[in-house]
Structure to design on (197 residues):
């Protein structure tokens, strides 16, 4: 694909990500309700599938900049960007090194999705440990209150951190799947339409 086409697709998908964010179509995640499942990640995934990892990352950066301009707190937008970036990077690593050896598309996509989930969950767990224990420990109290409201009695900081990381792991795994599956379907549809022209 020519560079001008890649730029056009990335710009369109970046704009779509911004529109979806502004629309605030979000689903609060159970227990830690400050976590939100949103669909603004999907354009970055579509860009990745259409024109590659670098362009998918650029789309995620465009989305991150828009979130930073809208939000007064850089933590949320930055964590969102890092979640998407690590997800795409995990997918890219699997595709780059396993693609020559795998002939079945479904198997490759399954492994690609798995690589993205693993990279996302591990990376975001490490980042959250740093944030909750070193940079912004008061966020741990927010998690403690949310856990208590859900009926989970976590008394020590270690228990709160453990529960938080477990729930974050589930959240990031599900979010990766929610972003991956529609992106595959939409990408195939776009490619089929382009082939008919």
């Amino acid at each position: 694909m020519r560079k001008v086409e890649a730029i056009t697709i990335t710009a369109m998908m970046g704009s779509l990500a911004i529109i979806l964010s502004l629309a605030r179509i979000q689903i609060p995640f159970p227990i830690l309700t400050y976590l939100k499942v949103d669909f603004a990640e999907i354009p970055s995934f579509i860009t990745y599938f259409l024109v590659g990892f670098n362009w998918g990352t650029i789309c995620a950066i465009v989305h991150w900049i828009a979130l930073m301009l809208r939000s007064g707190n850089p933590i949320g937008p930055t964590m969102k960007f890092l979640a998407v970036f690590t997800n795409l990077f995990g997918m890219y690593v699997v595709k780059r090194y396993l693609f020559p050896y795998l002939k079945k598309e479904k198997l490759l996509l399954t492994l690609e999705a798995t690589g993205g989930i693993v990279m996302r969950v591990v990376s975001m767990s490490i980042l959250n440990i740093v944030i909750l224990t070193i940079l912004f420990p008061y966020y741990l109290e927010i998690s403690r209150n949310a856990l208590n409201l859900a009926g989970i009695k976590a008394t020590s900081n270690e228990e709160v951190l453990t529960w938080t990381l477990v729930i974050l792991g589930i959240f990031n795994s599900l979010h990766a799947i929610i972003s991956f599956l529609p992106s595959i379907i939409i990408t195939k549809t776009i490619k089929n339409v382009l082939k008919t022209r």
In short: The mean pLDDT is 93. Residues 157-195 form the longest helix (39 residues). The helical segments are 3-23, 42-51, 53-70, 75-98, 105-135, 138-149, 157-195.
